[in-house]
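User: Can you model how alpha-D-glucopyranose sits in this protein?
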Amino acid sequence: MRCMFLAIVLGVLSCSSEKTAVSNDAAAQTATTVPASPIERCINLGSALEAPNEGEWGYTIRAVDMQRIADAGFDTVRIPIKWSAHTENVPPYTIDRSFMARIDDVLTAALMADLQVIINVHHYDELNAKLTPHKERLYAMWDQIAYHYQDVGDRLIFEVLNEPHSKMTFEEVDTVNRRVLDRIRQVSPDRWVIYATGQWANPIGLYKSKPYLAPRTILSFHYYGPFEFTHQGATWTEKPYPIGVSWGTPEQYATIEKDFATVRAKMAPYGLPIFLGEFGAYDPAPAFERAKWTEHVRKTAEANGFSWCHWSYTSGFEVFSKKDQAWIPEMKDALITPFRR
Ligand code: GLC
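Assistant: Here's the modeled complex, given as structure tokens:
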């Protein structure tokens, strides 16, 4: 019933972008034209549905956020979701209905604000630790998610898995991408799908991948370099990174440019759009340098033809201050060039 409602309300919001024929043959391996990405300027709604329970990490998504984000000039929100905390542990691995209903509400709010939405499988820690039975459980999750949203238009985008690592080797990531894509394609032949990237979505994960060339697929990587700057004061990293670290020498600017040019050059033969799905500096970084780093990463992504998604919106890696309930002007300007408003 709920899905039917979503289909009726949201089906009309479907956009029809050109389909691009990509095949896995040798010619495609030397493709020079890259199909346009449906995403341009995106923001991650982190700290909400990526927590074991929404609200536990200090943020619960509100409809008003979606309108505010759209009004600021973003076209897409990426919503990290910890499905694994709301899915049965035994076959058929059913997703909790009330959790799915909450995701329906969040999607409805975003699509009604005229935003595109990326949903992913985030923080599937058990899968990274143990492939059996978790690969099967992941496939079962995607079967249910794809089926549930099959009638929602293609402004809803799926992303296979966030930051796989450990047991999820480069080969496993390629296998899982292909298997999940096949399952999504059973019910949604036209939906855009963002592939997972190994080694925590590090560019190395891209270089080691052999992405399956299919229409409407997107490559993705995350960028947090230098980590001691972007993660200063973080409490969840393997080792602590002390606060007070600066950024902004000419060499540091150049490193970002070199890193992104390498991603572009190395992945160009695949002819797929590239999405910088996460980049951000944690709140304790010096404010001015944090904004400068953000602006430089964003502009360098654009210069290389990558669409991007800032990590995050509020409650850590803030662009919108939780305390003041207002945009942080220099952070917003770092992402959305003022003349665009
Ligand atoms: C990854 C993690 C997220 C974290 C972010 C920055 O996306 O899943 O929880 O906040 O990276 O470290």
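A couple of observations from the model: The chain has a mean pLDDT of 92. The pocket of alpha-D-glucopyranose is lined by residues 46, 50, 122-123, 162-163, 278, 311 (CB under 6 Å).
User: Helpful, thanks.
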